[in-house]
Amino acid sequence: MLPRPFGFYIGLVKIPSEITEPADGALVSAPLSKFCFYFLWLGATGFGGPIALAGYMQRDLVERRHWVTKENYLEGLALAQLAPGPLAAQLAIYLGYLRAGIVGASLVGLAFVGPSFLMVLVISAAYVRFGGLPWMQPAFYGIGAAVVAIIARSAWKLAKMVLGRDSVKWAIFFGLAVSTAVTGHELVWLFLLGGVVGYLAKAVKAPQPQVGMLFVLAGAGTAARGKVAELLWFFTKAGAFVFGSGLAIVPFLYGGVVEQHHWLTDRQFLDAVAVAMITPGPVVITSGFIGYLVAGPWGAMAAAAGVFVPVYLVVLFVSPYFARIARNPQARAALEGVTAAATGAIAGAVYVLGRRAIHDWTTALIAVVALLITLRWKVPEPLLIAGAAVAGVLLYR
């Protein structure tokens, strides 16, 4: 069990600690079917990103239903914070694992990811069937600009929450932001270097006996066709660099699917990010949309599996050693360095994507207005994107 102060931080963001326990302190036992149905519902209706989804789980499972203890929930948050992978999905799978072992983790994972994946599959099929939905291009004209504004807001919020006043983390952040902006994609070795720098900075400040870190390598099976196998391998690597926010995967994906493999155009990539934002569930479900455009339904399944299966395996294999890793300051420092690097890559992606999405005064106006709205009010992202779509239709030339 984790110390209280550490457990109350999610992605280095403090969450409310006022949790109402039953009078007798008892845990309410719920059938596995009800437990899974809750995550099916959350996956179908949960908007707002990883922090919001984790907050829903705390409110519903800990405070209201008492199906999960406060301690178990906080351990799951800490695991999702320290290990790579989509935070909300990792937390859900961990809670499922605690409820019913491997069976619980498997069913909860499928229930949570399934609804948004099916929605993306339907949208992808329509997108391909109608030639990229040309009749919707005026809407996506405005949506692309709003997406850039949302990513900029997320980069700013993450920077404030993750970096604080730590000069080492800010240096890592700016290094990745500049390299991503200049090259158009992030360099994986710089992510790893960020972890090394974070580790060394902590070791120099407070040298102490080291506890070995655990690294889990999740192997993926090969598929019959080359494109499907490529997608599976590429998205497995991409999923390893999702720290703190699902948007951390955006710059990695752009560099791979647009710049390196040329699977998608700039316009298609922005559409893929927009689709992920207007559907509930994890933001990284954009992988399914990209996979469908590249290799149809099998490509969508391969891409989604590449992102989510390693998360599932991390939960299964890391749990027995998790308490030791979580208490090791050097291990946390290394992972915080990688998180700072991921945040910098998101900031750099704002420039890269902005050059493609903001190309006249109209899109610039939409982006500025969307950014000001996100900074001033807590407007749900789907609603903001819907407004940008209407503005795009009205102003499209």
Give short descriptive properties of this protein.
single chain; 397 residues; mainly alpha; 16 helices; 73% helix; disordered N terminus
Structural class estimated from helices and strands: mainly alpha
Helicity range: over 70%
Distance between the termini: 59 Å
Secondary-structure element order, as H and E? HEEHHHHHHHHHHHHHHH
Overall mean confidence score, pLDDT: 76
Low-confidence stretches: 1-24, 207-224
For the sheet with most strands, the description reads: 2 strands, antiparallel
Question: How many β-strand stretches?
Answer: 2
Going across the biggest sheet, name each strand in turn: 1-2
Summarize the structure.
By secondary structure, the chain is mostly helical. It has helices spanning 4-7, 32-45, 50-64, 70-82, 87-129, 137-163, 167-183, 188-205, 226-239, 249-260, 266-278, 286-318, 322-326, 329-357, 361-376, 381-395, and strands spanning 9-10, 13-14.
Description of the molecule:
There is one protein chain. The protein is mainly alpha-helical. Helices cover about 75% and strands about 0% of the residues. It has 16 helices and 2 strands. It has helices at about 5, 30-45, 50-65, 70-80, 85-130, 135-165, 165-185, 190-205, 225-240, 250-260, 265-280, 285-320, 320-325, 330-355, 360-375, 380-395; strands at about 10, 15. The chain has a two-stranded antiparallel ribbon with strand order 1-2. α6 packs antiparallel against α14 (about 330-355), α6 packs across α15 (about 360-375) and α8 runs antiparallel to α14 (about 330-355). The longest helix is centred in the first third of the chain and has 43 residues, at about 85-130.
